Amino acid sequence: MSTAPDWLRDGRESASLAAMLSPSSPLSLESLAAESKAITLRRFGRTISLYAPLYLSNHCSSGCIYCGFASDRTTLRRRLEPDEIERELLAMKKLGISDILLLTGERTKAADFDYLRRAVEIAARSTQRVSVEAFPMSVAEYRALAECGCTGITIYQETYNRERYEALHRWGPKKDFLDRLETPARALEGGIKTVGLGVLLGLSEPVEDALMLYRHARHLSRTYWRAGISVSFPRMRPQTGGYEPPFPVDDHFLARMIFAFRIALPDVELVLSTRESAAYRDGMAGLGITRMSIASRTTVGGYDDNNTDKGQFDVSDDRTAEEFCAALRAREIEPVFKNWEPVFNGPSVTQSRTLTQEELHACH
């Protein structure tokens, strides 16, 4: 496929979302917030599910102009070895964290598929829920990860504007726009149960990106109707390369975008990370957001040894797990550390099939 699929280019289905996001919309932010809050309470209750990222490696083979891990940065490169992963997991467990997102850069010899699979195996032994945010993989590779205990992936398109995408990704495997676009579907075909989508707000015109992000989520929801879909709203934060976003997104628009997505996608999990300030996250809790990261470290080895190296980006909400949970409870919102049993791990039966010998060989 050399052109964007029809579902991404067809604007008819996203017309109602466009109306809510328009600068000339007659719908006030307050009215959207009230409707979003009511839907959130009805569908999810007064809860916020919590997770934390664990950066396994900052090795990367791509040249994303906006990323602190890009291959031309002078950042000290490191990866966690198995014993270090064990120590990081133990430190996170002491914080109460049992839902972990494992992260790497793009595929490299130092952090390839076999390395990631081993990390999933280690994490799945002691963690209730393990997901990954890493490089795009094949259906067979995703199947192998699912069999090791990986339940979900997160993969942002970064921007759906293809011209902007190609300019921002200067070299490396991530430069392939369509391959990345097709990755969530490959993961679900491979038996992964949940997929997280998002754009990096600030890279391109935000309304355009929001509408195409919505179309992507709707397409996957229809095609893989038993899968779990989540949407994240990361804004550009200061990072090692010093890249300045050409389309900065203010607090008002971000709130409008979150409320509009909750109204348009009432059953989809909406995620807000520690990129945002403590005050902003507290204000958004219960209004549309249903999942947040907690006590995040964006360095490799940041939980056990308190590594002070520069991470992928600066964290804005640096509260401890205890402080964050206390803030939620003060708003009568229950922080949920665990809502997943390991018995549910393994490939999704409804989205899986028997692999051929050739596909099995591709995993190794």
Describe this protein's structure.
By secondary structure, this protein is an alpha/beta fold. The protein is built from 14 helices and 9 strands. Strands 1-2-3-4-5-6-7-8 form an 8-stranded parallel β-barrel, surrounded by 6 helices. Helix 5 runs parallel beside helix 6 (139-148).
Report the span from N to C terminus.
27 Å
How much of the residues is beta strand, in percent? 5-15%
The main sheet comes to: 8 strands, parallel, barrel
What is the averaged pLDDT score?
91
Strand ordering within the main sheet: 1-2-3-4-5-6-7-8
Silhouette: globular
Q: Secondary-structure element sequence?
A: HHHEHEHEHEHHHEHEHEHEHEH
Uncertain segments of ≥5 residues (pLDDT<50)?
Answer: 352-364
Number of DSSP E strands:
9
Percentage of residues in helical conformation? 25-40%
Radius of gyration: 19 Å
Structural class: alpha/beta
Tally of contiguous helical segments: 14
